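Sequence in, structure out.
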Amino acid sequence: MEPIASTPPQSGLGFDVAALAHVLTLGGPVVMILAALSVTGLAIALLKILSFRRARVWRTAAVAASVNAFLAGDAAAASRGLAAADSALARTVAAAVTGAAEKPPEIAREITEITAAAEIEKLRGGLRPLEFIAAVSPLLGLFGTVLGMIAAFQALEAAGDRVDPAILAGGIWEALFTTAAGLAVAIPALAFSNWFERTLDALAHRMEHYTGLVLTSGARAGTGAETPAMRHSAMAAE
């Protein structure tokens, strides 16, 4: 009796590639486009997270401490702290500190607003493509479904009297697959897009808050009003 040759085990990578090829073939060109959009959207999301980390968007404790130092009258310590923080928020507040010390109030506020707008716009770069992916993916999925339904009914018509319900059912199933693929791409892209926008809105609010404290510090000192530094330092935990 001849020994039966054993089949070599299939690698996990080979299985994954085969499954992916089957999915792409099943959905046709539309699913291939959606797969490319999915990879692009994921790459954009990862790059934006890294960009936000480099800009230290979520770190505000050092900025709050520097603002407190400025309001306490130690502008030099505030400038050193902001330079060490080296974040989008710190650079904006530093512009306000420099402007409050060297420029008239109107000029200082204008310089601060320009700096804040530039920092926000720099961080917003790349979000438009993510929004586009979130918007176009469901439409591509629907387009693939319509094309699949047309193909299914054409096959049903070509069958003539030998109508097989499986022909129609299989065609509809494959057509609806593209809709599911489009939604699977659009939902994460939309979630990431909204999260990034909300993060930028929160950053803009912090910029407005801290620069407002700096730029109005002279007016408060002139009226003898109590400094709000400690009252607002809790924002550092945001």
